[in-house]
Amino acid sequence: MCGIIGYCGPKPAAQILIDGLKRLEYRGYDSAGICIGNNGSLTVVKKKGKIRDLKAIVPKNLQGNFGIGHTRWATHGGVTDINAHPHTDVSGKIAIAHNGIIENFAVLKAKLESDGITFKSETDSEVIAHLIAQNYKGNLEQAVKESLSLLEGTYGIVCIHIDEPFKIVGARNGSPLVVGIGEKEMFLASDVTAILAHTKQVVYVEDREVVTVTCDDYTITDLKDRPINKKIDEITWELQQIEKGDFAHFMEKEIFEQPESITRAYSGRTEAEQATAKLGGLNLTTKELLNIERIKIIAAGTSFHAGLVAAYLMESIARIPCNAELASEVRYRNPLVERNTLYFAVSQSGETADTLYAMRELQRKGATVLGICNVVGSTIARESDGGVYIHSGPEIAVASTKAFTSQITAFYLFNLILSRMRHMSFESGEWYLKNMLAVPDSIKIVLDKAAQLKDMAGRYAHYKDFLFLGRGINYPVALEGALKLKEISYIHAEGYSAAEIKHGPIALINEETPSVFLVPADRLREKVISNIKEVKARKGRVIAFCNEKDEEIKSIVDDFFEVPKVPGIFNPFVMVVPLQLFAYYCAVELGRDVDQPRNLAKSVTVE
Ligand code: F6R
Asked: Is the whole model's pTM more than 0.85, yes or no?
């Protein structure tokens, strides 16, 4: 979604801001802009389209050492140059960039218009610039604070004033904002990737805090002017992790990184002597863990699919009732928080509004919610009652891949802890650990055969509709395979339990609708084979993802990909990776913008 960057320091601001916006591209956007301050002037340059379109119109001689930049993902008002940020007040002395949604903007706009102000854009954000101008009496920070008290909704904002050079005021409520501390230069950004090339020292701004940065200092206060001392965090990500290297796309790089990212997710967390695992951040005593009677997982999109895998796993292995639910639905159905129930909020970005708000609602009702997050210092990571970082490293492609396998790795560890505390024997624990640690090697086998999936994509990318079908713990993987294909290739795809097709979706089967079956040699294999035959009998094309040397399946389907044989519960790892690759190669085949698919954003910070 929208991205923000601000810079104040000795270097030419335009270049730093454009480079920072380029790093934010992955979040998804449709227009971008910068505002540069220099010797009593503010220059705004903004453009719909890509950062390269913006760069093309930024004057080469644009001087100035402080400024703000923004990538916009349209909510209020179409994708136009005028609606792009930064927005200025009537005098052009104030410029702001805003992430989030101002819910009472219509009322504020009507009032400002009745005061004689003419709006230039259709955005909700422009009201902020005019409000700050109305409240400005020589102190930008105060004017921002007074204006914030009038806003309802979410915001991460940065603001500059022509009369207060080398100063940026920022504030947050619901949209992330981080201060980057450099050598005689300071940054503000919605996302650390925007500033990682310049500094690793950061301070996270919390909701209802206001930050003022100058070239060599920053202050953070609350809305009542009380100073807030915060600790400086060190970003652990490396610059090369947010660069593509030799890969054609970030998505390809991230798929191929999975043997390492999964290893990072479990490293230092296994205890061979006890045949169990340890997760330091849970903030739960052994007694509290033992008292858990039920587990509920909330998440969105791919993270929700990871939650569904976890629910199958924990119910069948740890023998604890467990279910996963869409966070967006949980929040508004007045959820019941039962005793001895442990909640997990799963989110790669840690900023997804649907998940965050549902988590807050559950916490308000007294629930203990643990976070499973990738982005360190993200809002869900900070506000949850404990949790697990998955350490995938930055996930830049909009389509989530390595986060999924690391999220489930975190759950496989947690499941082992719970199981070993209850009924799982030492020997079974050893077996479980051995197989879990073997997952990266099994994934390498899949990755080594990527060329087969590329060929397969070449044969199938022209189809318009697909079904993805799996059973048991592979059912959520089928959902994930369908999601991957549709989001990056724009091919229509639906995921179902293979058993479910006879209850409706089988009506879709014809020569033009291939079905992708996940059919490992587990206890549901025979049933899935029957489903395959039902599809074949109706002239449907079938692609099977099956185990090596499963000649029976290979003989009845049109196409197949062999995955290494692993014990049933570990199949999601080896099944999801070829589906990610299949989707990736289909999208490449169709010439899609793989890393930034249309209409999508990486971090969905609005409901
Ligand atoms: C799909 C995808 C989305 C996200 C969803 C939740 O590839 O990326 O479906 O999984 O928006 O995002 P997080 O995990 O950041 O909460």
From this structure: yes
Q: Say if residue 400 is in the same domain as residue 253.
A: yes
Cβ of 328 closer than 6 Å to ligand 1, yes or no, is no
Q: Is 580 in the pocket of ligand 1 (CB under 6 A)?
A: no
**Domain ranges, residue 500:** 447-607
Closest CA to 215 of 169, 189, 184, 187: 184
Active-site option among 2, 35, 322, 586: 2
Q: How far is the CA of 523 from the centre of ligand 1 (A)?
A: 31
Residue-wise pLDDT for 260-291, tens only, equals 999 999 999 999 999 999 999 999 999 999 99
The H or E element containing residue 487 is helix 475-489
User: What is residue 387's three-state secondary structure?
Assistant: strand
| DSSP at 316 | I
Question: What CATH number did the domain enclosing 482 receive?
Answer: 3.40.50.10490
* Cβ contact 158:188 at 8 Å: yes
For the stretch 5-57, pLDDT in tens is 999 999 999 999 999 999 998 888 899 999 999 989 999 999 999 999 999 99
- 437, 463, 495 — which closes off a domain? 437
**392 CB near ligand 1 (under 6 Å):** no
Whichever domain contains 154, its CATH number is 3.60.20.10
* Rounded mean pLDDT, 178-194: 95
Which atom of ligand 1 sits closest to the CA of residue 407? 14
Using alpha carbons, list the distances in angstroms from residue 305 to 259, 432, 483.
Answer: 20, 22, 10
**Cα-based angle 435, 438, 443 (whole degrees, multiple of 5):** 125
In a domain, 565, yes or no: yes
CA of residue 476 to ligand 1 center, whole Å: 15
442 in a structural domain: no
| β pairing state of 542-547 and 515-519 | parallel
CA 355 to ligand 1: nearest atom: 16
Sheet holding 233-234, edge to edge: 41-48, 31-38, 66-72, 3-8, 186-189, 178-181, 201-204, 233-234
One domain for residues 313 and 456: no
The verdict on the CB of residue 400 being under 6 Å from ligand 1 is: yes
The amino acid occupying position 23 is R
Backbone angles phi, psi at 591, to 5 degrees: 70, 30
User: Which residue lies with its CA nearest to atom 5 of ligand 1?
Assistant: 301
Q: In this structure, are residues 446 and 574 in contact, taking their beta carbons and an 8 Å threshold?
A: yes
Q: Give the strand pairing for 155-161 and 233-234.
A: unpaired
Which listed residue (48, 200, 253, 602) is catalytic? 602
Q: Do residues 551 and 428 share a domain?
A: no
Pairing of strands 368-373, 341-347: parallel
Residues in the chain: 607
**Closest ligand 1 atom to the C-alpha of 354?**
16
Which has the closest alpha carbon to 158: 191, 190, 120? 190
Does 2 participate in catalysis according to the annotation?
yes
Q: Are residues 89 and 102 in the same domain?
A: yes
* Cα distances (angstroms) measured from residue 522 to each of 240, 546, 560: 40, 10, 17
